[in-house]
TrEMBL record:
This is PRC-barrel domain-containing protein. InterPro entries: PRC-brl_dom, PRC_barrel-like_sf. Gene3D superfamilies: PRC-barrel domain. Residues 3-68, 90-160 form the PRC-barrel domain. It comes from the Bacteria. The lineage of its organism: Bacteria, Bacillati, Bacillota, Bacilli, Bacillales. Pfam families: PRC.
């Protein structure tokens, strides 16, 4: 499994020229929980964020993201249902995961991408806070059947609480 935190910061290399054309600053996710684009530069007052859409990506490797041509980097126009992982007012990181019956499972700290293509979100890394992470470790929630992306929370089915798994077990003192 590949975490988006492993992708953010990777250099973006153009295979046509061998030139590094940027570095991944954020990941743009669509309503189907797939990577739509990699953000390479932040948007400002009168300028949209620049990035490369998924269709222009050749591979997401351990050491770099490769693209075919430099002209694939362009201003991105995101749809209303799309969200960034780290940035903007519609970010995923930091949102609480809440079941339909009102039980909070934790806070989204990262998302996991499928190993084969690196495009599809297959689960969430969930934290309950720094102290809890040290004592109990973080948890992994495989992608539920349905996820409602709200303004202030991600709403998951009730049975999602049963699917939470520990990522690592802390050392006993």
């Amino acid at each position: 499994m590949k975490r988006t935190r492993d992708v953010i910061g990777l250099p973006v290399i153009c295979v046509q020229t061998g030139k590094q054309v940027g570095a991944v600053k954020d990941v743009l996710l669509d309503g189907e929980w797939q990577v739509r684009a990699f953000i390479l530069s932040d948007g400002h007052w009168f300028q949209e964020a620049n990035g490369v859409e998924w269709e222009g990506v050749i591979a997401v490797g351990d050491d770099a993201v490769t693209i075919e041509r430099e002209d694939l980097i362009k201003p991105l126009e995101a749809a209303d249902s799309w969200r960034m992982l780290l940035g903007g007012s519609r970010r995923i990181k930091g949102l609480p995961l809440v079941t339909v019956n009102g039980h909070q499972l934790g806070i989204v700290d990262d998302v996991y991408l499928d190993e084969e293509s690196g495009r599809k979100v297959i689960g969430y890394e969930v934290t309950e806070g720094f102290i809890s992470d040290l004592k109990e470790g973080r948890k992994w929630l495989p992608m539920p059947d349905s996820v409602k992306v709200g303004e202030d929370a991600l709403i998951v089915p009730v049975h999602a609480s049963e699917a939470l798994e520990e990522i690592f077990v802390p050392k006993e003192e």
